[in-house]
Amino acid sequence: MKYKLLGRSGLKVSEFCLGTMGFGTDNGWGADAAVSFAIMDEFANAGGNFLDTANVYQKGTSEKIIGDYLINQDRDYFVLATKYTLKDNQTNPNASGNNRKNMMRSIEESLKRLKTDFIDVLYLHIWDDITPIDEVLRGLDDLIRQGKVNYAAISDTPAWVVAKGNILAELMGWSQFIALQVEYSLLQRTPERELIPMAKHFGMTVTPWAPLAGGALTGKYLKGEKGRIKPESNRLNENSERITKVIMAIADELGVSAGNVALQWMRQQAFSCIPIVGATKIEQLQDNLNTVDLTLSADHLKKIDDISAVSLGFPGDFFREENVKLNSFGGFYDRVEKR
Fold this sequence. Notes:
single chain; alpha/beta; 2 domains; 11 helices; 14% strand; globular; AKR_Detox_Biosynth; Aldo/keto reductase
């Protein structure tokens, strides 16, 4: 793998991030420690250095497994990302949320489980719609100044909140968010409405979770395989089947897997993107990493876009109209002939 800069920083990360939500079996599924170690070895041997976890993954076991693994590795080779927000115990009313108290408590617990002195990238996991964004940013900046965290990032948060946060951080001299983690795939393109344009504007790298829509885009469910996706999920409806069949047809034409096509479509979009590829089996990771050798043609991209594009809503669709152009001087929309 090659390396890319993460957002507006000098941090070099591999072009895929290894998702570790399946490290551990505390939730009734996942990979045990031995398999998890083997997956991380495979990832590192392929040049991967970017690991993604969270305090709540497998009830904390994911962080513990990574910590046990890193003891015998070059810690500085890896870029370790974790998250805080979601409840990881029942000790007190502030054991969840974006507040400073939970942030400080969570980071200390994560550092213990990960057996490390610092976290490379700390994500706010999900917006709680309660805590002021300035409280979050000041807390993250304090952790960075203390050396316990190197970079701040944010996940699953409205675009306007992230934008307000980065502008406030710039004005106050605090550390800005360098990465945005959201659900994004060919079956979930709604982040194209506000989140992705916002990230592109601020120079943030998008790190999509579920880039294969829980495995739906690999075509395995159409082949009769079973998984953790519920039958009523929008990942298994008629629209998702239409999209997946197109992906499978392109994959057959190119002699690659459907997952490779779905991942490469994402990597060829016009913004900085590092997909998070989860794996509980080495074969899954190996197949995902084959994507680095694939390039989709303009025809392939158009065919995929035609079957999967979503409405941008207002004002996105309004901007798309060919006969409408923004008159930046008058501050109003003026219908003009397209040149």
